[in-house]
Amino acid sequence: MSQRDSNLLWLSDLLSQLKSCQKQLEWTTDAEAVHLLTETMIRDLECCRRLCETLQRRASLPAAV
Q: What is the pTM of this model?
């Protein structure tokens, strides 16, 4: 598996995790649970941002011959 494929798979997993957290946020009213879920989402969003930046940088590099 290429590094790009690995990054895309990781990104997909993170987005799935974010969706799961969002669904949990919809029904929870517990302040501690909200805090934990939002902290998890912030961390996952930061990972998504870094992965996207990596993919963007690699796409802008000249192709290896």
A: 0.84
